Design the sequence.
């Protein structure tokens, strides 16, 4: 590359751009495998005594860790403000990143290696200052080392993409394709000038800087001033045997004639924050994102393949694709691989490209291996073109105490962080699985979203949990941020829970927090949360708030039984809430509008479920469930209560077996009588059979109820029918397709044309009554399954419901 002795402030003579003498400015594209190979060739030829790399100089003490055998890219330098870890920035490096190649070359060769970009202490403070004073620009696709802070809208409008401009000038509409053609597929032949690519790229960037100035990246002027000062300092120490690896955009600025005073003037008065740096794992998927230091490369997996393939990259790539598709049971043979390679080469020749690129290989894979389908092609794009590679950093890397404790827990529980999302099924009866559950719940409480709980596929019991795990690099920032709460996961989660309990203002928030504390087994935080819960529950008189809070307490008691956690105090509070709900619910349901009635119906459903989970007091005149049943009976019979709530109350009583024969039909008959407005009657039906309550199956198996609905619907006046139709459509659209089809067949057969069916009427194909002899034949097997033992002798005649009594 060019000799900077001419462009330094001392005004030496211009150098020969192609000359072998240093310093050498190696302008690169971040995360470009072609640039990485060219950098390695140039360093091998020049053998500089010092290598200067674009990056935060505070990380110089961490550079030696790159030679550690346990350091596996992709990795990133993480910088965060000490007293505010949320203010953070990343400098990622993949195996094919020119910066990583230069760093490893210097360490292996024994050369001095330094970072020369603007210190993170300044860049983080400048980002915070701009965020507080300027409107967001709507773009966040630059690296911390390239201006992650948001600029104003006017400034962002002037930004240019250097590669995009060069590609457009060359007649390309795709910058990625242009870069592949001119760099990735243009390896120098033996004996060629290793500095030639950098000289040509430097000339192109010089022309762009002359035309566009800073290109809308005003902060680059400050960064480049600092880099020039660091370059001068290195030259005083090592002479001209210095190589600089930086973004090609900065090469003209580093070669510009400036004075030390002018550069220092640009750096004067910069804001500053105390920052800490460390290495953290990174992922290929994160490199592919157009945010933060994602750098916006679309195909990190493809770039990694190009960099590591010693020869025949297309053939090796097609072999990888075939292996992946075979793992997914796609029929791909060696003939498919051969034809795909041939087609990719043919497409490249037709398109005038030196070698097949990602576009050609993708088209060939789609046509040959995927038979024109984009479904398997999406898998190739996700697994290979992007990839799920997760880097590793050695234990010697600096880390906050919380991160070290988390790492120890992950190893002891055999929960290795992985970039690929995976399902984790836990059986809480096993000690290791219970410990894993506690860790994941504690991390969730701290805002570290490594795992997301999902519905267990194996069991609906309380002793199983299902999690989806996926480690993202940003979680390292969350861990550093959570470090303010404590040095261990347990201590931090406990402190966070206590702080949330003290600051909660809504009863439902505290009950949800109590549930999370129990799931995370935070025994020290639970008393604090319980005191806050008792205080808030005593002051809150809103029945809606009480009804919203009770389900979480009931679930907490349920899980407490499984995990062996003492919940006596929690049960006391939950019982008190339940009793207050029983007293205040009927008045609270009076005079509600349609939206209010729908919301209250949901709360009643939740409370009904919670009542079944709460412990029932023994020896009292009336159990809690009996009191709740009496409340539902009041709601079902009050005309001042909206129809949707009345219908739901009748349905819940019916499901509990607390309505006698014909009571449900009587309530429905009253609700659907001629004197009831059609809208109110439709709302009653919505409450009775709507939602996910299984109302469709109820109508299928009880044609008397279906006949009542059908008779009412056929009698709705034409002018009112359009008003009730949307509500009815919402009610019946929630049913399964098979249920809707069966109901349609029953209605077409005409159950509503004859009025309510007689008491002894049955569905077609069934007898007129119960066959007790056939039912009794099942009883021994049922007793065996339930572990009830042999039945007692009963010489008398069997009574109806005998089998149901045995089941109880």
Sequence:
């Amino acid at each position: 590359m060019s000799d900077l002795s001419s462009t330094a402030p001392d005004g030496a003579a211009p150098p020969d751009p192609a000359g072998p003498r240093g310093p050498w400015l190696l302008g690169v594209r971040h995360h470009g495998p072609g640039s990485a190979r060219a950098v390695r060739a140039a360093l091998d030829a020049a053998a500089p005594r010092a290598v200067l790399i674009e990056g935060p100089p505070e990380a110089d003490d961490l550079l030696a860790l790159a030679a550690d055998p346990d350091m596996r890219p992709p990795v990133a330098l993480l910088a965060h403000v000490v007293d505010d870890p949320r203010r953070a920035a990343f400098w990622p490096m993949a195996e094919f990143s020119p910066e990583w190649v230069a760093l490893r070359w210097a360490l292996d060769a024994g050369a001095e290696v330094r970072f020369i970009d603007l210190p993170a202490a300044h860049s983080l403070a400048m980002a915070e200052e701009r965020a507080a004073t300027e409107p967001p620009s709507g773009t966040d696709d630059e690296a911390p080392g390239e201006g992650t802070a948001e600029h104003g809208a006017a400034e962002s409008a002037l930004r240019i993409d250097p590669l995009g401009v060069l590609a457009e000038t060359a007649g390309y509409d795709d910058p990625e394709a242009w870069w592949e053609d001119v760099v990735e597929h243009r390896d120098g032949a033996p004996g060629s000038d290793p500095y030639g690519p950098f000289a040509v790229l430097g000339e192109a960037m010089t022309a762009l800087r002359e035309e566009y100035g800073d290109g809308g990246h005003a902060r680059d002027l400050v960064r480049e001033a600092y880099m020039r000062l660091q370059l001068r300092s290195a030259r005083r120490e090592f002479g001209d045997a210095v190589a600089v690896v930086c973004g090609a955009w900065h090469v003209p600025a580093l070669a510009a004639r400036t004075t030390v005073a002018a550069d220092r003037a640009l750096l004067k008065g910069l804001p500053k924050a105390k920052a800490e740096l460390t290495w953290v794992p990174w992922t290929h998927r994160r490199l592919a994102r157009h945010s933060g230091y994602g750098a916006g490369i679309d195909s990190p997996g493809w770039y990694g393949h190009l960099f590591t393939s010693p020869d025949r990259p297309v053939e090796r790539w097609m072999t990888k694709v075939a292996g992946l598709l075979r793992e997914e049971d796609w029929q791909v043979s060696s003939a498919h691989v051969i034809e795909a390679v041939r087609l990719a080469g043919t497409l490249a020749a037709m398109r005038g490209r030196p070698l097949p690129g990602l576009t050609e290989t993708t088209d060939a894979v789609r046509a040959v291996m995927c038979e024109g389908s984009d479904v398997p092609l999406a898998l190739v794009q996700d697994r290979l073109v992007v990839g799920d590679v997760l880097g590793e950093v050695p234990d010697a890397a600096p880390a906050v105490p919380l991160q070290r404790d988390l790492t120890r827990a992950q190893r002891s529980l055999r929960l290795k962080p992985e970039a690929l999302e995976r399902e984790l099924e836990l059986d809480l009866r096993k000690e290791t699985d219970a410990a894993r559950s506690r860790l994941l719940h504690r991390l969730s409480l701290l805002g570290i979203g490594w795992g997301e709980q999902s519905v267990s596929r194996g069991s609906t019991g309380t002793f199983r949990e299902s999690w989806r795990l996926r480690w993202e690099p940003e979680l390292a920032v969350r861990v550093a941020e959570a470090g303010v709460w404590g040095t261990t996961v347990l201590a931090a989660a406990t402190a966070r829970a206590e702080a949330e309990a003290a600051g909660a203002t809504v009863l439902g928030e505290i009950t949800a927090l109590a549930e999370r504390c129990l799931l995370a087994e935070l025994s020290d935080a639970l008393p604090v949360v319980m005191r806050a819960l008792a205080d808030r529950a005593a002051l809150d008189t809103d029945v809606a708030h009480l009804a919203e809070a009770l389900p979480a307490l009931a679930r907490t008691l349920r899980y407490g039984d499984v995990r062996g956690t003492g919940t006596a105090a929690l049960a006391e509070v939950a019982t008190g809430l339940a009793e207050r709900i029983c007293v205040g619910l009927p008045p609270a349901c009076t005079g509600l509008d349609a939206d209010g009635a729908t919301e209250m119906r949901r709360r009643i459903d939740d409370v009904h479920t919670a009542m079944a989970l709460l412990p029932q007091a023994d020896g009292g005149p009336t159990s809690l469930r009996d009191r709740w049943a009496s409340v539902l009976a009041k709601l079902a019979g009050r005309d001042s209560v909206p129809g949707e709530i009345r219908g739901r109350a009748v349905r819940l009583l019916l499901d509990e077996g607390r309505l006698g024969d014909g009571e449900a039909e009587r309530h429905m008959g009253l609700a659907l009588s001629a004197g009831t407005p059609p809208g109110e009657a439709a709302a009653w039906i919505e409450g009775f059979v709507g939602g996910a309550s299984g109302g469709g199956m109820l109508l299928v198996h009880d044609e008397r109820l279906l006949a009542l609905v059908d008779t009412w619907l056929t009698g709705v006046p034409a002018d009112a029918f359009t008003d009730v139709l949307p509500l009815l459509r919402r009610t019946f659209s929630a049913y399964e397709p098979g249920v809707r089809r069966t109901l349609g067949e029953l209605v077409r057969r005409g159950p509503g044309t004859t009025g309510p069916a007689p008491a002894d009427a049955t569905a077609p194909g069934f007898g007129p009554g119960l066959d007790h002899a056939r039912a009794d034949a099942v009883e021994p097997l049922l007793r065996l399954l339930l572990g009830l033992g042999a039945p007692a002798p009963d010489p008398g005649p069997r009574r109806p419901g005998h089998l149901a009594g045995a089941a109880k």
The chain has 35 helices and ten strands. The two ends are 89 Å apart (CA to CA). Residues 437 and 580 are 34 Å apart (CA to CA). The longest strand covers residues 84-93.
